[in-house]
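Q: Here's a chain of 343 amino acids. Please give me its 3D structure as C-alpha cells.
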Amino acid sequence: MTFRAETLRDALDQVKTLLGPEAVIVETRELGPRRIEVLAGVDPEPQVVRRDGSNVQRLEAELAEARTRIQRLEAERAMMEKRRRSLERALQDGHGGDALVARLVAGGVAPSIAARLVAGASTHGATEEENAMAVARTLAGAFEPAAPVWQRKGRSIAALVGATGVGKTTTLAKLAAEAALQHGKKVAVIAADTGRIGAVEQVRTFADLIGVPCLPARNAKELRDALAKLSSSELILVDTPGASPWVDETRNSLDRLFEGLPVERHVCVQAGTAARDLSDIGERYGRPSSYVVTKLDEARTVGGLVGLVTDGMARIAHVTNGHRVPDDLARPRPAALVQAVLS
C-alpha cells in the first residue's frame, strides 16, 4: 500500500494505524517539498525469532537501514527548505526580481554575492541567457585553481587545517600519495593531531602504506624537532587537530604551533557547507595559501564555494570526491563547478 503525507512521521503513523505493528516498509521517497511517499505492506509469513538470535540481528540491521533512509530523507528535506528560505530572503532583500540572481541563490550562492555577481557581469539590454553566460565566465575565472600543494620551488611545509570531520587526514594521505608516487617528490608527514584517539596511528598507517616517513608533534617544540629531522624532504604535510572556526582560540593555537615557521595553511572545507559559514572561514584559520574542498561527491549544492573564491583571499587547489587514496583526489574543474552552481 502507498501512503502519502507532509512528513515521514505522519506517513509512518498512517502505516502503523492501517497495517499494524507487523507492517514492513518497502520504500520511502520524497515527492517534493513537504510531500513524502511510503510504500508498505505486511509480511504474509512473519519469521519466528530463533534462539540463536539470527533473526534479531537481521531485524536490527533492517531497522538501522530504515533509520539511515529516514535521516537521509530528513536531510534532503532540510536542504530543500533551506533553499526555499534563501529564495525568500533574496526576494525580501529586493534581489529576487532578477531570475538569474534567484537561480544562483537556488544553487547555494549567498543572496548578496549572487546580486553582486549579476550586477557586475550583466550588460544593460542583454538577454537573460547572455547575462548568464557572462556570470558563468566570471565564475569560471574565480574557480581557476591554485597551484598544487606539491608545486613549490625548494622545500615546503603544508599544513591542512579545518573543522573536525572535514576529512583532513584522508586528504593528507591522498596528497602525500600523489606527490610521492605520481610526481616523485620526497614527501614526509607530521601527525600534529595528537589529541584525537587513534589520529597519530591513522596517519602513520597511511604513511607506511605510501612509504614515506612520519613523525608525531604534540606542540611547537616537537614540530620544530620533527622538521629538523625531516630536513631532506621536499614536501612536508602536517595533519592538525580539527577545531571550530568560530572561536578565536582556533587561530591562536595554530599561530602558536606554527610561530616563526614557513608553514602554508591549506584550509579544508566540505563542498556542501552553507554559504554563510564559508563567508570568512579562511580568515578564521589564518590567511590560507589555498582551499581544499572535500566530499564533493556528497554535496547537493556547491554555491557556497563562490564566496570562498570571490573574496580574493585564496583559490581552490584540490577537491576530493570519495574515500579512495589517492584516486579520489582531483584538481578543480572550473567548467564543472560553474555548471553545478548554475544548474
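Q: Can you summarize the key feature?
A: The radius of gyration is 24 Å.
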